[in-house]
Write a structure and sequence with these properties.
The chain has about 230 residues and is of the alpha/beta class. The chain contains five helices and 17 strands. The chain has a domain of about 160 residues. The longest helix has 16 residues.
Length: about 230
């Protein structure tokens, strides 16, 4: 089984990971770019989170979280020139949020989708299809990888989301990718999504002892996965 490793010099805004025969760029934004296929992968956008919390009487968040996430998404797609996009589930905070996204955000998202092969993987927050277009799948295989929302035991070449992993460096919490020889776990891409510490048993029981954490933020930085 191959273990992921760096190839070449780390660029300021991404960590180059050699994983199952392919070079993947793990971007400081929390997006994954697969240059050979011109694919961008993001997970857990949770668009409409502030609206969903307000609707259910929860903690109020600034109302611009959807706009902030779409601005970052727009920059990543423009920078990479991606022709294909895979969203790994929980793209919307719930199905009602998908239906009530404001017109400006809906138009923005429609513009981002135009001319691109776009797949929505279903998540536990958005378990059904939405009416914004694209294809909808429980999981997607683009060899050598299988893309799904939640990691499954015993899998290899798996890329997933769901757990919102994060780690602390110099006292600062940063969302992170987690990578070992079998799987790659994505950070939450959305604004105000929160996270699960990498030393939580839900993550340490999934990831191998020699797993890496690739921290996001101002630059991508790979460290041993904190346990």
């Amino acid at each position: 089984m191959q273990h992921p490793r760096r190839r070449g010099t780390q660029a300021p805004m991404h960590h180059a990971l050699f994983f199952h025969g392919e070079t993947l760029h793990l971007r400081a934004t929390g997006a994954l770019f697969w240059p050979a296929r011109q694919v961008v992968v993001v997970s857990d956008l949770h668009l409409g989170k502030s609206e969903r919390l307000a609707r259910r009487g929860g903690t109020l968040l600034p109302p611009y979280e959807t706009q902030a996430t779409l601005e970052k998404f727009d920059r990543d797609l423009e920078t990479t020139g991606a022709a294909t996009v895979i969203c790994l589930g929980d793209s919307f905070d719930d199905l009602a949020a998908a239906g009530s996204i404001d017109d400006a955000s809906r138009l923005w998202l429609t513009r981002l989708m135009a001319g691109r092969d776009w797949t929505w993987i279903t998540g536990n927050h958005d378990p059904g299809p939405i009416d914004i277009g694209g294809s909808h799948r429980a999981e997607l295989t683009v060899r050598p990888f299988t893309f799904r929302h939640i990691a499954e035991p015993g899998q290899s070449a798996e890329i997933s989301g769901h757990f919102h992993p994060k780690a602390r460096l110099a006292g600062q919490s940063r969302p992170c990718f987690l990578a070992d020889a079998a799987r790659l776990m994505m950070p939450a891409y959305g604004t105000y999504t929160g996270g699960l510490w990498s030393n939580d048993p839900a993550l340490t029981t999934i990831m191998a002892r020699d797993a890496l954490a690739i921290l996001t933020g101002t630059r991508a930085l790979a460290i041993p996965m904190p346990r």
